């Protein structure tokens, strides 16, 4: 018997995600990955003809939960600017039938930010007090939401060039996210003496230079759909302790890792650990004799784990 999947739109997904512990769901999946109970293939990038864009498929299997799935995210080139959407399909490993089709916009924001939070918890100095955020969009705000209680932050600084165009209401909304938050007018001011710097932008090129830091810090970086996007200079990987979300797939997609390998003599074997290794105790927390860099590209398993959690709220 074929079945029709339960369809969830973006607003429903937002509402349901508030009812689940997103970081805890991600910790479980990374431990499952370490234990061989989950499968994470590499991302699949497919280009449209005539430069019209591309789409990325993010795949994954959660064997203990009896589900597999795929998130597909197109990047559609248009005159008025690129359009990016994403949908996640959750499938049963028992029946082979579709369980859920979910607008993945909210899932993507939540899993991107919560993965960074899991990494911050695993990698940041336990005494870290100064948090810096570069970016101010939904993803940046979600980053703050998931990390604000992970350390005893004494100060949180945020810089985003787009804020200069924001109206007072938008600025007030960002300021209201946390009483410790201060909006500053340059990235230099934001990262001054920071212990943790979260890069939360859609930039295709570097937004900070780790060599300019006043002291070694944890720098976290995420992905955007732009080809070979990177938020730090590729050559800076040679001077940092590098970690990632999943070492078997991230180096093949992360822009700065690809460029560093091709042009700056960096080797993916220099990655010190990934989240499955950190959360299963196979890799220790780094010392801070030099900057620490954590790179996530977004894993299909993260989307599938959240889709599965949402599905079980409904069933």
Describe this structure in words.
The chain has 315 residues and is α/β, with parallel strands linked by helices. The chain folds into two domains: 6-107 and 301-314, ornithine cyclodeaminase, domain 1; 125-298, NAD(P)-binding Rossmann-like Domain (Rossmann fold), CATH 3.40.50.720. The protein is built from nine helices and 16 strands. Strands 1, 2, 3, 4, 5, 6, 7 and 8 form an eight-stranded mixed β-sheet that branches. The longest helix is centred in the middle third of the chain and has 19 residues, at 105-123.
Give keywords.
alpha/beta, Rossmann fold, 2 domains, eight-stranded mixed beta sheet, 9 helices, 23% strand
Topology:
Elements lengths: L5 E3 L1 H8 L4 H13 L3 E2 L4 E4 L5 E10 L4 E10 L6 E2 L2 E6 L5 E6 L1 H19 L6 E5 L3 H10 L7 E5 L8 H8 L5 E3 L3 H5 L4 E4 L18 E4 L19 E4 L10 H9 L9 E2 H5 L12 E4 L4 H15 L1
Parallel strand pairs: 1-8, 9-10, 9-12, 10-11, 12-13, 13-16, 14-15, 14-16
Antiparallel strand pairs: 2-4, 3-4, 4-5, 5-6, 5-7, 7-8
Helix pairs in contact: 1-3, 2-3, 2-9, 3-4, 3-9
**What's the architecture of the largest domain in CATH terms?**
3-Layer(aba) Sandwich
CATH class of the largest domain reads: Alpha Beta
**Number of separate structural domains:** 2
Distance between the termini: 19 Å
What's a quick, concise take on this entry?
The protein is an alpha/beta fold and 315 residues long. It has 9 helices and 16 strands.
